[in-house]
Design brief:
The complex is a heterodimer of chains A (243) and B (852). By secondary structure, chain A is of the alpha/beta class. Helix content of chain A is 21%, strand content 30%. In chain A, the strands form 2 sheets. In chain A, strands 8, 9, 10, 11, 12, 13, 14, 15 and 16 form a 9-stranded mixed β-sheet that branches. A 7-stranded mixed β-sheet of chain A has the order 1-2-3-4-5-6-7, covered by helices on one side. With 852 residues, chain B is α/β, with parallel strands linked by helices. The chains are: A alpha/beta (243), B alpha/beta (852).
Chain lengths: 243, 852
């Protein structure tokens, strides 16, 4: 409860919902309304599950989803980069929807992405969808990264003793107010674990009340920050609904 | 109904109806029957190979008439019946109807000892049967439009339909002017390419514009310059219906839809008739009326319930009980509008306003199938406005005037599905296919550019960014034709065929109560008896423990899984969630104009119940009543807020759209809109700013507030956030084959894998706003959920004809609309308001905790 009160206090003010502070271990981080995470002490931006070229991956198999997802994702990422001006970017895995994604990138999108990668330190964590294939786009490929005692990995590890920041699960939350319901991607955190929402445009979400989250969130309190159209909102766990 | 003669509308060439040959003549005589004039006329039409529309009321032997030409042909000795292939294809909107018709055909065939094979085919038929039917079809196949589309997509189609002689389209009025009708029209065009001299027989109830049905039955050879029409036979109508509006001593309610004030009268009417059908407009009303009737059912009359959300097996039981005469009354929705006759109904009670003249005539026709006796109906208005509407509907029904339908323009999503289906059968030649498609009347006006864009959509998704050429689903064959890139695509198509998108329904299962629960993960629910189905978006708005009425009782939501909602019996008598959607028809344009005329003519008010006439006189003296061409707009303060009430009479859907747009404009004008509410007759918006004052000072010119240009940018901006538009888009995306249907049992993949059409919709709006699927969804919205077309006509109609009446207090006419406030959730703006509210609640709670 104390953690929530802190979050709430930090969220009062004018542009109250542009971002929300989140503490993992002893580190004070900032969850951004775009779905990215900023680590101020390291001037580092973390994003998870970009799933670039998901549209063309479906198209290859006969389902003609729109081809604009990569462009859309990259433009939103560029927006977050412009706001935080990070020295380092960590992409927490599943950056490409499949290993062939790098090959299918459109020319304009490739230019846009490679320009972003070349201007700062860039780490691709391997994911179950893309493996190390994103390395073809520049930057460094790692299976996992430990910084100041915090593990950054694709898939959260319930057995992990250390603090961790991960993606993979595409957390989403659902609430109902006044006869309407809303289901949106969200950050979900315990004191030493943070799961980022999927950043990619064509990514759906898994409800944080799904049994898959149970071993990660344990029996104590957890914090949820829901992404709106233009803001990031702390939501009481009692208000959450299953699907 | 008027007494039109049978052959009046038949073609000039059909002079003398032939007599029936044996064994048919004998069979008729044996039962003491005379072949009816329209049955013989249709035989003559078939002899002359002229496609024909038969319009006949229920009970006139319409279906038998449709089959007689085929039965005669198949029974001729020169017809080698067992050797020949499929002779007649019968298509009906309902699987159940096909089964019923098969049964009704088998009896006479057996009695006449005719060896003519009759089979049904539906998604319920066994795989072996369906497989066998493709190779060794019966002489007569009874099926649905979706099955026809499926059969046409197989390579065997030219063989299967190679001997097809006749196609019978039953209940054509129910299929036409819908996406299923579009699909059927395209399939008919395809069948004609395979069998150019195919005879088409359409069977229909009385309709407003038979022209559209007649055009559907024949190929349009010169679509731009002329519309070809099939011949038409109108069977003699029966006696004039006997319709009354219920008059009660009890005070007439101002608003609401329960008609509880008249319950005793309704019960008395049921008690004094053999079998009554009680029609209501929504499933919710059906549930409530059913409960209310049983509450006062001192004679323990057998009263049943029948609506679209109930489980099919439960509905079958009610139908059987009706047919066997074991029921005295059935409370039902539009599920009993069509087709099958389930018993000897002698009274139709319509509770609530009928919303359209044609619907009322159709429903009244469910009673008394002896043509020479009048159908009997009782209209029970549930509030004052509905009295006006019932009066208008009664007059329309007595004059046998039907509501005018708009000309149907075929859906582009349906066309996309059809193109894929044709390609699944054999390579397509675009020029020939374009000509074929345009021979189907809903697509007669299709431009070549649109057609090419649809083909391009099928091939590569049709995106402005030409990214998918190398993944194309249609590839050139080298001779100008296009072939399917992979056989897998044909299988994919067959799983997705059809225009009914019902992935949004959840099964409702009855389980035991689970007691108190805490939030967070809990053990999954399973099992339980199936009560029926319910809209996912209704359940989506509920939280566990919320109560609502379903299947005749109050239930509590226990939990929801991927495809099922679990409920338990609740002790509460009054449900917490008062209503759920489903089957709400908007007031028809025709009835609306009749109501406006009635309002404007005080000399006709004496025909109305006294309290209603008094109410209108009071309105005339306190405020005013608009003339038929005008719209009345009142502004007045009330309870610290300021109200604007308008009375367009354009139906609830158009009013809701108007409400969203007015709110945006009032917001821009600085009037501080707070909320709005709409019903079928009018709309009320309330604001923090003084509207009368703003209008008087010229700061809020009403002509500008209601200017037609709100259909431009304002509408576009609002649509971006509209959930209705998203649902419309989803339906188009599924029909067009952009995404696969969700199939029962294959949904275990979970939401994080399936792609949401909302994401696709958002991306298309941002990056490809002119995409053909957005165009298709927009066209649907214009006539469907948002009724944009009707709103546009309204705004054009009232230009320069706004009557503004500033008032010191609410007017009598506004009361029913103001009473709607609080019945419906008010929603302004997108989801972020909700999130802000939820976050604020957390902050308040957290601050409270800190203070302790």
């Amino acid at each position: 409860m104390r953690r929530m009160a802190e979050a709430a206090a930090g969220g009062a003010g004018a542009d109250a919902f542009a971002s929300q502070p989140i503490a993992i271990g002893a580190h004070r981080l900032i969850a951004d309304k775009s779905g990215a995470l900023f680590w101020p002490a390291r001037e580092m931006l973390v994003v998870a599950d970009l799933h670039l070229e998901k549209g063309s991956s479906f198209a290859e198999r006969g389902t003609m989803l729109p081809p604009y997802d990569t462009r859309d994702t990259l433009l939103r990422l560029a927006g977050a980069v412009a706001r935080y001006r990070p020295e380092t970017i960590i992409a927490l895995g599943d950056s490409l929807h499949d290993p062939g994604g790098a090959r299918r990138l459109g020319d304009d999108d490739r230019v846009l992405l490679e320009a972003m990668v070349s201007r700062r330190r860039w780490v691709w964590i391997t994911g179950n969808h893309d493996g190390p294939s994103a390395g073809a786009l520049g930057g460094t490929v790692l299976d996992e990264l430990v910084l100041d005692g915090v593990s950054l990995r694709h898939e959260p590890d319930p057995a992990s003793r250390a603090a961790e920041i991960a993606g993979h699960l595409h957390p989403a939350a659902r609430i109902a107010i006044g006869g309407r319901t809303l289901r949106r991607p969200c950050f979900v955190a315990t004191p030493d674990r943070l799961v980022l929402p999927a950043f990619g445009t064509f990514t759906g979400g898994l409800n944080v009340l799904d049994p898959a989250f149970a071993p990660l969130l344990g029996s104590g309190e957890f914090a949820v920050r829901m992404l709106g159209a233009d803001g990031l909102y702390p939501i009481a766990t009692q208000a959450l609904l299953g699907d | 109904m008027s007494s039109r003669t049978a052959s009046r509308h038949a073609a000039p060439g059909t002079t003398r109806p032939p007599a029936l040959p044996q064994p048919f003549a004998g069979w008729f005589a044996q039962r003491g029957w005379q072949p009816r004039a329209h049955q013989l006329s249709l035989l003559a039409q078939a002899d002359a190979r002229r496609s024909t529309l038969l319009i006949a009321p229920t009970g006139a032997g319409k279906t038998l008439a449709g089959f007689l030409p085929s039965l005669l042909a198949l029974s001729r000795p020169d017809h080698g019946s067992s050797a020949a292939g499929l002779h007649t294809l019968y298509v009906s909107p309902l699987k159940a109807l096909a089964v019923d018709v098969a049964r009704n055909l088998t009896t006479p065939l057996t009695e006449m000892a005719l060896d003519i094979s009759v089979e049904t085919r539906s998604s319920d038929s066994s795989k072996a049967k369906r497989q066998r039917q493709k190779l060794k079809p019966p002489a007569i196949l009874l099926t649905t439009p979706e099955q026809v589309a499926l059969l046409l997509s197989h390579e065997t189609a030219p063989y299967l339909f190679g001997d097809l002689d006749t196609i019978v389209l039953d209940e054509l009025h129910a299929l036409a002017a819908s996406k299923r009708g579009d699909l059927l029209a395209l399939d008919l065009a395809r069948l004609r390419t395979l069998r150019p001299d195919l005879l088409a027989i359409g069977l229909s109830a009385t309709v407003a514009r038979p022209t559209e049905l007649r055009a559907l039955l024949v190929p349009q050879s010169r679509p731009v310059t002329e519309t070809r029409l099939a011949d038409m036979i109108v069977a003699g109508g029966g006696a004039k219906p006997d319709i009354h509006i219920l008059e009660s001593d009890a005070p007439l309610p101002w608003a609401g839809h329960t008609a509880r004030y008249a319950l005793a009268h309704v019960y008395e009417a049921v008690r004094t008739h053999r079998l009554s059908l009680l029609f209501v407009n929504t499933r919710m009303q059906a549930e409530l009326l059913f409960q209310d009737l049983w509450r006062i059912n001192d004679d323990s009359l057998a009263i049943g319930l029948h609506h679209g959300s109930l489980d099919a097996s439960q509905r079958r039981k009610v139908e059987a009980a009706m047919a066997e005469g074991r029921l005295r009354a059935v409370v039902c929705t539009s599920t009993l509008d069509l087709g099958i006759d389930w018993g000897d109904v002698d009274l139709v009670i319509h509770v609530g306003a009928p919303k359209g003249a044609s619907r009322l005539i159709q429903r009244i026709g469910r009673s008394n199938h002896r043509l020479d006796e009048p159908s009997k109906a009782l209209l029970v208005p549930s509030n004052r406005f509905e009295v006006l509407e019932c009066r208008a509907a009664l007059e329309a029904a007595e004059a046998n005037v039907q509501d005018v339908q708009l000309n149907r323009v075929g859906g582009l999503d349906v066309l996309a599905q059809h193109v894929m289906g044709v390609a699944a059968c054999a390579p397509i030649a675009p020029d020939a296919l374009y000509a074929e498609v345009r021979s189907a009347s809903p697509y007669a006006g299709l431009t070549r550019d649109r057609f090419d864009r649809v083909v391009d959509f099928v091939a590569t998704g049709g995106y402005a960014l030409r990214a998918y050429e190398r993944f194309a689903r249609l590839r050139p064959t080298g001779d100008g034709r296009l072939r399917l890139a992979h056989p897998r695509l044909a299988q994919q198509f067959r799983l997705n065929v059809g225009t009914i998108v019902d992935g949004e329904m959840l099964k409702v299962r009855l389980v035991g109560p689970r007691g108190h629960r805490r939030s967070g993960p809990s053990k999954p629910l399973a099992g339980g008896r199936v009560l029926g189905e319910i809209d996912e978006y209704f359940i989506g708005a509920l939280a566990p423990d919320d109560t609502f009425v379903f299947g005749g009782e109050v239930v509590r939501l226990e939990g929801v899984s991927d495809t099922e909602a679990f409920v338990s019996r609740a002790a509460a008598r009054d449900p917490k969630i008062p209503s759920y959607p489903g089957g709400k028809f908007p007031l028809s344009t025709h009835l609306a104009s009749r109501v406006r005329a009635l309002l404007a003519d005080p000399s006709r008010w004496d025909d109305l119940p006294h309290p209603v006439a008094e109410w209108l006189r009071l309105q005339a003296s306190r405020s005013s009543l608009p003339t038929p061409g005008e719209v009345l707009i009142e502004t007045f303060p009330r309870g610290g807020r300021h109200f604007l009430v308008a009375y367009p009479f354009e139906g609830r859907l158009a009013h809701q759209t108007l409400g969203m747009l007015l709110t945006r404009r009032l917001n821009r004008a600085g009037c501080g809109p707070i909320g709005f509410v709409a019903n079928d007759y009018g709309i009320s918006v309330w604001t923090s700013g003084d509207l009368s004052d703003a209008i008087a000072r010229g700061r809020l010119p009403l002509a500008e507030l209601f200017a037609e240009d709100m259909m431009g940018d304002d509408l576009d901006a609002w649509l971006a956030e509209s959930t209705l538009m998203r649902r419309t888009f989803r339906i188009c995306a599924v029909i067009a084959g952009l995404i696969d249907r969700r199939h029962p049992g294959k949904q275990k993949t979970g939401r994080q894998v399936t792609i949401s059409t909302n994401l696709i919709y958002d991306v298309l709006r941002r990056h490809d706003p002119h995409h053909i699927l957005l165009e298709a969804a927009w066209a649907d919205a214009a006539t469907g959920l948002l009724d944009i077309g009707r709103l546009g006509e309204f705004l054009a109609r009232i230009k320069g004809r706004i009557r503004h009446q500033p008032l010191a207090q609410a007017s009598p006419l506004s009361v029913p609309i103001l009473l709607e406030i609080g019945r419906e959730p008010v929603a302004i703006g997108g989801g972020d308001e909700l999130l802000r509210e939820a976050a604020a609640a957390l902050i308040a709670e957290a601050t409270g905790v800190a203070a302790e």
